[in-house]
Amino acid sequence: MNEREFLKQYDKTAFDQPIFSVDNVVFTVANGGLEVLLVQRAEHPFKGHWGLPGGFVDLQKDLTLDDTALRKIREKAGVEPDYIEQLETLGSSQRDPRDWSITTVFTALISKQRCVPTDENVSSANWFPVTTLSELQLAFDHLEIIERALKRLKNRATYSLVPCALLGETFTLAELQHVHELILGKKLEAKAFRRRVENSEQFEETGGMTSGRGRPAAYYRLRPGAMGFEFVRSV
Amino acid sequence: MNEREFLKQYDKTAFDQPIFSVDNVVFTVANGGLEVLLVQRAEHPFKGHWGLPGGFVDLQKDLTLDDTALRKIREKAGVEPDYIEQLETLGSSQRDPRDWSITTVFTALISKQRCVPTDENVSSANWFPVTTLSELQLAFDHLEIIERALKRLKNRATYSLVPCALLGETFTLAELQHVHELILGKKLEAKAFRRRVENSEQFEETGGMTSGRGRPAAYYRLRPGAMGFEFVRSV
């Protein structure tokens, strides 16, 4: 039998395979804190519980795993995220009452101002402060998954520019510092933070300035292609 | 319908799911260079080609995804690796001629002296220098996967102790430095390397010394629980 004949008669259902899904931990900054997007489950298992936006690969629509993650976020949040990366894949016989189950987890960042729910599916979606999640009964191992994503985000905040994806397209240095502080849960020294941002050479001034009370502050934006850049020293 | 009734009638085959597998990039150091473990494929697709040791989850035998990875390495290399970590998960409609396919990739390190093939399955397995892989026709996207694993290993070698898993249980500082140099593809300064190892406080002298020609060198081993430690500064 040659390969073409083999492929013709190949029946993937002859092998007992685990359930495979994608889950997204989508963070935003709102109401003075970090928030995560959750969806109330319409179906068993964990019907009525809050869980991460995710689901199965659509073998017709999705060309890659990234497509699945982005499609699921679009369906639930109404927009594309400003930043997305794969966190890790978790699989075990215990995490899903249906069967042996695997989930590939993505972490996404989205600026709240862009995130306006646009279709009906979204009515079941809501943002929750990460500090109040223990009061909800989350589906599956989703609380643990969020904690792991948060740990990675904190890590990123010490040595990368990634958290700026939580802001709009333009922002002041004070706003950027504030986002890093929210994620890290501690105050940073303004002078040292400014020096690191400038040394990174990955931001440029837009020319615009804040107006209103106090000293005007310059607006910055990322230089094209700067995403993913790492600070030379951690903050 | 309550959750118990739902689970009773749930049929996972009603959803068209991708093929899911695990692949391992297992590195060792031998013959003065970095080598990777490959297995000659006994079946289509890519029959007769060399590919990464991996396979399907065994829903009865494996409790977690890590179990699948370790089982596959045991089956092909005859031993447990000295270090293993998840690299990433790749999925697309194109990477496998059978169907939409997903693979979770693990990177493992093994010291060559421990790696003696022990059973019949292993006859099809062989170690290849990473510098000669382009001469082989590898199955699927396995060449690209190895390149991604190599990039991660290089990264680890700049800021972690992970590469010492390629040596035996005890080693001299010169041997440890040599392994870092092999991975990084450049010479390191001996004094600075020794200082970083000592500053890490993660190694201890065994009390033994090399014998033979030249000045005797002390044997070191990892302190218990030291694995995963990161250097304060990269090498």
TrEMBL record, chains A, B:
Lineage, opening ranks: Bacteria, Pseudomonadati, Pseudomonadota, Gammaproteobacteria, Cellvibrionales
Organism from which the protein derives: Umboniibacter marinipuniceus
Name used for this protein in its record: ADP-ribose pyrophosphatase YjhB (NUDIX family)
InterPro entries in alphabetical order: NUDIX_hydrolase-like_dom_sf, NUDIX_hydrolase_dom, WH-like_DNA-bd_sf, WH_DNA-bd_sf, WHD_NrtR
CDD domains xrefs: NUDIX_NadM_like
Nudix hydrolase domain span: 20-150
GO function terms (MF aspect): catalytic activity
